[in-house]
């Protein structure tokens, strides 16, 4: 489940990972909540700066910056393996994940937060419970 990426440490990244076959697995609230809890546990083991996220029914987005000594591949590996293990339903992820280096973190965060609105899951971003836009989850504040 790991993937080799050039060193991206020190840069803010938009990371996207998809559920296998784009199954809407995280429509299940308990699964979505567990994905967020695993995300935080993964970041306790491999610290990084998490600026925002959304757990959509069939994919996840993270706005993250990894310190010099860290590895986005290791963080994503721990997250994906941790979610699969916690849910106990076998392999649920596509094998790869996608990274975009971000020049405008505010725009990227807006993109992440508007995902549930665009998908017509909610009318306002802050109404989607599985997103940092909800205000229910701790993330780093953007200071650019």
Find the structural class using helix and strand composition. alpha+beta
Please tell me the CATH architecture of the domain at 12-103 by its name: 2-Layer Sandwich
Helix count, DSSP H or I runs of 4 or more residues:
3
Largest beta sheet: what is the strand line-up? Answer: 2-3-1-4
Find the count of extended strands (DSSP E, 2+ residues): 4
**CATH class type of the domain at 12-103:** Alpha Beta
CATH H-level name of the domain at 12-103... which superfamily?
Transposase IS200-like
Query: Which percent range fits the helix content?
Result: 25-40%
Rg from Cα: 14 Å
The fraction of residues assigned to DSSP E strands is 15-25%
Distance between the termini: 33 Å
Shape: globular
Average pLDDT metric = 92
**Low-confidence spans:** none
**CATH domain topology of the domain at 12-103:** Alpha-Beta Plaits
Q: The biggest beta sheet, please?
A: 4 strands, antiparallel
Order of helices and strands: EHEEHEH
């Amino acid at each position: 489940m790991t993937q080799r990426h050039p060193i991206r440490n020190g840069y803010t990244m938009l990371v996207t990972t998809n559920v296998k076959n784009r199954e809407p697995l995280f429509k299940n609230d308990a699964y979505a909540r567990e994905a967020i809890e695993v995300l935080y546990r993964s970041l306790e083991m491999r610290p990084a700066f998490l600026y925002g996220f959304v757990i959509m029914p069939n994919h996840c987005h993270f706005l993250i910056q990894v310190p010099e000594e860290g590895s986005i591949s290791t963080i994503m590996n721990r997250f994906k393996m941790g979610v699969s293990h916690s849910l106990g339903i076998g392999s649920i992820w596509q094998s790869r994940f996608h990274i975009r280096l971000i020049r405008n973190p505010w725009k990227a965060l807006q993109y992440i937060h508007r995902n549930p609105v665009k998908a017509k899951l909610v009318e306002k971003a802050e109404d989607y419970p599985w997103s940092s836009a909800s205000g229910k989850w701790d993330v780093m504040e953007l200071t650019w």
